[in-house]
Amino acid sequence: MTSTTTNTAETTKPDLGHRLYEDVLALLLGTMVVSLGVMLYSESVLVTGSTAGAALLIEHATGIGFGVIFFAINLPFYWLAFKRMGLAFTIKTFIAVGLVSVFSKLMPMWIDFSMLNPIFAAIAGGALMGIGLLMLFRHRAGLGGINILALFLQEHLGIRAGYFQLAVDLVILACAFLTLPFDKVLLSILGAVVLNLIIALNHRPGRYLAAR
């Protein structure tokens, strides 16, 4: 009786994997939401964390182009993504990075701000980027660099992705005091806290990690 019940439970266990169209929608909508948050930051002259923020800081300090630095910084992370997170995760992450790049250029053509309060931009921009990243994470995708390392540490060591990213972002933002006005850095830190708390509170180990 027990064996029969167990077999029945196994055969009726729902498939938690995401379908292709679900992944496509998540990548499109998630990256669009992230790009809107990035636009709020750009309009208010705020900075973000992760590898993009690190690349910008290195560019300001050395004069080397952002693209070269960003590519070089991400190389070991994509290797980690391929070796530890799988080919599907790596491909979806590459696609997500490309979509954010495209949407970030298109957003100014779609939206124009006549007035934007920087405090609102910091909070709303951080929230939008956090929500967008959460959508990507739940479909096993990221935006490269620290996102990949954060997901790897969460899956394999149980370290919350949001808390880890928050720590890294705060280090990067602390370095921004050398290049940005004091108030802009403080608002950027506020945005980073909002972004990473959204991820930490809504993306926990063992949840939303549906593998294909």
From TrEMBL:
InterPro entries: UPF0750_membrane (IPR051461), YitT (IPR003740). It holds the Pfam family YitT_membrane. Its main location: membrane. It is a multi-pass membrane protein. It comes from the Bacteria. It comes from Thalassospira xiamenensis. This is Uncharacterized 5xTM membrane BCR, YitT family COG1284. Keywords: Cell membrane, Membrane, Transmembrane, Transmembrane helix. It is found in: Cell membrane. The keyword Membrane applies. The keyword Membrane applies. The chain crosses the membrane at residues 20-41, 61-81, 117-137, 157-179, 185-202. One of its GO terms (cellular component) is plasma membrane.
